[in-house]
Amino acid sequence: MIHKHTISFVHALRGARYALMTQPNYRVHACCSILALAAGFFLHITKFEFLIIIFLITMGFSIETINTAIEQTNDAITEDRRDAIRIAKDVSAGAMLIFAFGSVILAILIFYPYLLNFFIKAGS
């Protein structure tokens, strides 16, 4: 039983590594995530705000990974242009875009007061 779970974990890590190594948007998300965490530490955001940031990062990686899986699955079916496949790919990419917009809005709401305070103190 444990061996089965270990194998599943290895496959999952391989999938995450594949996404990181082959998908430019995955790497952009990783860079933005590191930047958001560093800003959180630097600006001393609250524990609850960190939880929100970590949740957004985790959900972003999850949605981007599902998007990659949908794209790869459809490419495995056929690389011919088909409306149904284009729609599936567009919709899955749209899900990530919607999430990214929401995440940016939440990040602005979290970081804006801290950045404003930082610049006010720096200007004094």
In short:
The protein has 4 helices and no strands. With 124 residues, the protein is mainly alpha-helical. The radius of gyration is 19 Å and the shape is globular.
Structure overview:
This protein is mainly alpha-helical and 124 residues long. The protein is built from 4 helices and no strands. It has helices at residues 2-22, 24-43, 47-77, 83-123. The relative contact order is 0.10. The model has no long low-confidence stretch (mean pLDDT 92).
Task: Name the features.
124 residues, mainly alpha, Helix Hairpins, 91% helix, 0% strand, globular
Overall CATH class: Mainly Alpha
Number of domains: 1
CATH names the topology as Helix Hairpins
Secondary-structure-derived class: mainly alpha
Write the CATH architecture name: Orthogonal Bundle
Q: Classify the beta-strand content into a percent band.
A: under 5%
Topology as H/E string? Answer: HHHH
Q: Biggest sheet: strands, sense, closure?
A: none
Annotate the secondary structure layout.
Elements: H1 2-22, H2 24-43, H3 47-77, H4 83-123
